Amino acid sequence: MSASRRLDALLAAGVGFVAGVPCSYLKTFFAGCRELPLSSFLPAVREDHAVAACAGAWLGGTRAAAVMQNSGLGYCLEVLTSLHLMYHVPLPMLVSDRGDPSDFEEHRILGQRTRQLLDLFEIPWAEARPGVEGDDASWLVAASERERRPAVLLVGKGADS
Amino acid sequence: MTRAEAVALVLPLLADDDIVVAADGAISREAYRAHDRPRTFYMLGSMGQVASIALGLAMTRMERVVALDGDGNLLMGFGGLALVGGLRPANLYHLVLDNGCYATTGGQPALSQDVDLAAVAAGAGYRWARRCLSGEHARGAMEAWLAAPGPALLDLAVDASDVDPAPRVPMTPEEMAARVRAALAT
Prior knowledge:
CATH superfamily of chain A: Thiamin diphosphate (ThDP)-binding fold, Pyr/PP domains
Low-confidence stretches of chain B: none
Number of strands of chain B: 8
CATH topology of chain A: Rossmann fold
Strand content of chain A: 15-25%
Low-confidence stretches of chain A: none
Structural class of chain A: alpha/beta
Mean pLDDT of chain B: 96
Largest interface: A-B, 34 and 34 residues
Order of helices and strands of chain A: HEHEHEHEHHEHE
Oligomer: heterodimer
CATH class of chain A: Alpha Beta
Distance between the termini of chain B: 36 Å
Mean pLDDT of chain A: 96
Order of helices and strands of chain B: HEHEHEHHEEEHEHEH
Number of strands of chain A: 6
Largest sheet of chain B: 6 strands, parallel
Strand content of chain B: 15-25%
Structural class of chain B: alpha/beta
């Protein structure tokens, strides 16, 4: 058991490698990641490197998940399109859901278009629900593997558990 | 020494179970032409991510992982160099085929002519990092690099001119990924 029920749920769903860049909406999740073995967690310097490392782990046979703020989707787009989508690489992603009207300005422009962006690239997404972390993780892993593409669980304020 | 000659020189030095990540563009095509092997992943896009893909493999596999990178490619994803240096996986071997330019797009000069990539790698935390400027010493430099403690980076100068370009790899991206996955599952 780690500090994060969402992380534990991903591990229970077979995830063996996590790479990401922190977001304050995902503090609990990242606290859990710090308890993982050194070979299972990559604290990336930018989100594109995180998703690329996940593709490497997947090529080697390890189910890998990426975690980031939704602003990081912009940095990831080239890798998600010309690596994961093109090579049919599954990628469960936990993405914070920043950008509602009460959030800071820097989160709003991309944040308010996160769902449109995912829809544009036919990346399945769902909203994380507190209390059913196991169901959320099962959906996320199954959706990405069934379609062999990235799938996103959007983690709103208070859904990081 | 041309880049293709350097690629053809390094592949026979590797063990059969080494895992290779070949950079998008000419390096992948030359690696395929010189010596296709099931444990080579041929990148087509996602420029800048050679080291990061190799890092994901190196962290989760026991075998040696060899990244065949380009100088422009490495510069685009410089954060990947920091990740390898900071996490220091002992089984990651990084070869930069450094022609000082963006050859695929017409030979525009790259900043690698002014940035010492081996010095940066050493500063980032690679356990071994060297630069080799002469083709006649390339083989010896490669042998020293592969015998060094990892992560190790060899910045190998190659000609800027592209003669005898290699054709595209005749597999779909899905086939390329599936073949590496299958080779690593056995």
